[in-house]
């Protein structure tokens, strides 16, 4: 059997792959990513030891599956990465699957599990379809390698009934699996373990308000190491706005926006079905719709380039602040830490400063310099609380979904 693990994080516009050893904990040996699949030309980024490559690609890579094939070929052929040169060197491929339905933990792919996951494809077509295309590719082209699927929804299986149930006809809800599932759970699991370790507390006694803020953004209330509420729902659309996602809106809005709401969107294919409303709210909304950019670094700046940028920033702050208050109450005020994670949470000092200043009444306070400096590359958790603060800690956690998948795989097979 091979000695290495490939962890694959497939999104709609990028595919990230990290190669790990099978040590406990796993050690990363190389990182490769293709981004810009939906906004060509795609770019290829690769890092292995001291080698760093960034290429604009001439190849047409139309789908995440094409991008994954490209990454695999380049890495297998790279003489500097001789450890992983063919299927024989790989023990496991771990795939991030956003929607895992009722699955509580990672599963190995076989005909049964794949069939079950294919039935869930329509619940999260924008995420699951790409990831499953890669799973199907691996099963066919790398048949000796075990594929493990890790689910973003699994961490939230602990949601109480009153949180996960939508007040609609329960026969229909049960028959169609219509409930709150919650996502970004692979990241929350990494965050919980890392922050608990940092605080010197057992995970089962750790209470945090965690924020995974990237182009997809969510928050999670973790009580005694368990998810008790989270902002995303049946799909990753609800809760906070994202780069191109609306987040919560009044559901009737879609019918006033367009009379085509229920029809299939032109982006649908024979295998993947999305309605026009889903396409608009997932792909044509969020801060891109307000400002024209998906890049939050251009929005979260001290001097806003336009009123629209300021509005986008204020909306994000308003929605996040609402959930901080909500989750503070749900944790009964017993909060060990407020945790910023995800590309934006980890990098935007302005967003952190603004939110913490507005949450002062709950006892949160930050050290301005520690916040501005952010974490070192090798610092997984950084405390940015004011040193004199008696209140809950405020920390940044550099989350790592690929590591979490490799780690879970090693733990379950140790
Ligand atoms: N300094 C910064 N300030 C604010 N946002 C930033 C900064 N640097 C990167 N970002 C934003 O982080 C987001 C990407 O976060 P990430 O978690 O990697 O996203 P995803 O995995 O959902 O694609 C982008 O919107 C990017 O613009
Ligand atoms: C669940 C989800 O929204 O994932 P991402 O942030 O990677 O789009
Ligand atoms: Mg992400």
UniProtKB/TrEMBL annotation:
Molecular function in Gene Ontology: acetate kinase activity; ATP binding; magnesium ion binding
EC code(s) of this entry: 2.7.2.1
Pathway connected to this protein: Metabolic intermediate biosynthesis; acetyl-CoA biosynthesis; acetyl-CoA from acetate: step 1/2
Cofactor names: Mg(2+)
UniProt protein name: Probable acetate kinase
GO biological process terms on file: acetate metabolic process; acetyl-CoA biosynthetic process
Entry binding sites for Mg(2+): 9, 401
Catalytic activity reported: acetate + ATP = acetyl phosphate + ADP
Similarity section: Belongs to the acetokinase family.
Keyword vocabulary terms for this entry: ATP-binding, Kinase, Magnesium, Metal-binding, Nucleotide-binding, Transferase
Keyword Cytoplasm assigned: no
Lineage of the organism: Eukaryota, Fungi, Dikarya, Ascomycota, Pezizomycotina
Catalytic residues of the enzyme: 152 (proton donor/acceptor)
Binding site for ATP: 16, 212-216
Organism listed in the record: Penicillium ucsense
């Amino acid at each position: 059997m091979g000695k290495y693990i490939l962890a694959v994080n497939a999104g709609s516009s990028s595919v990230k792959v990290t190669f790990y050893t099978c040590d406990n904990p796993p050690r990363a040996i190389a990182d490769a990513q293709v981004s810009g699949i939906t906004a060509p030309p795609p770019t290829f980024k690769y890092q292995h030891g001291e080698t760093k490559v960034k290429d604009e690609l001439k190849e047409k890579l139309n789908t995440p599956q094409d991008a994954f094939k490209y990454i695999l070929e380049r890495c297998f052929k790279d003489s500097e990465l001789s450890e992983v040169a063919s299927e024989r060197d790989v023990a496991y491929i771990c795939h991030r699957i956003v929607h895992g339905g009722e699955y509580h933990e990672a599963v190995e792919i076989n005909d049964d599990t794949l069939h079950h996951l294919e039935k869930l494809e329509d619940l999260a077509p924008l995420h699951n379809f790409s990831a499953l295309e890669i799973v199907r590719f691996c099963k066919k082209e790398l048949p000796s390698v075990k594929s493990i699927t890790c689910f973003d929804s699994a961490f939230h299986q602990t949601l109480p009934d009153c949180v996960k149930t939508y007040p609609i006809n329960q026969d229909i809800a049960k028959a169609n699996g219509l409930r709150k599932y919650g996502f970004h759970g692979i990241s929350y699991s990494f965050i919980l373990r890392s922050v608990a370790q940092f605080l010197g507390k057992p995970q089962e006694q750790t209470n945090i308000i965690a924020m995974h803020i990237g182009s997809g953004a969510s928050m999670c209330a973790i009580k005694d190491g368990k998810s008790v509420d989270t902002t995303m729902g049946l799909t990753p659309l609800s809760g906070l706005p994202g780069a191109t996602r609306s987040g919560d809106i009044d559901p009737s809005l879609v019918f006033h926006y367009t009379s085509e709401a229920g029809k299939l969107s032109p982006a649908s294919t024979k295998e993947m079905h999305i309605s026009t409303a889903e396409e608009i709210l997932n792909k044509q909304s969020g801060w891109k719709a307000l400002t024209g950019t998906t890049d939050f670094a251009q929005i979260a700046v001290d001097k806003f380039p336009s009123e629209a940028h300021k509005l986008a920033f204020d909306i994000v702050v308003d929605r996040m602040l609402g959930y901080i208050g909500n989750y503070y109450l749900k944790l009964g005020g017993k909060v060990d830490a407020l945790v910023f994670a995800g590309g934006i949470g980890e990098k935007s000092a302005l967003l952190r400063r603004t939110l913490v200043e507005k949450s002062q009444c709950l006892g949160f306070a930050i050290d301005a310099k520690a916040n501005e400096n952010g974490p070192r590359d090798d610092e997984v958790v950084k405390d940015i609380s004011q040193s004199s603060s008696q209140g809950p800690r405020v920390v940044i956690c550099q989350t790592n979904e690929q590591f979490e998948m490799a780690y879970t795989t090693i733990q379950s097979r140790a």
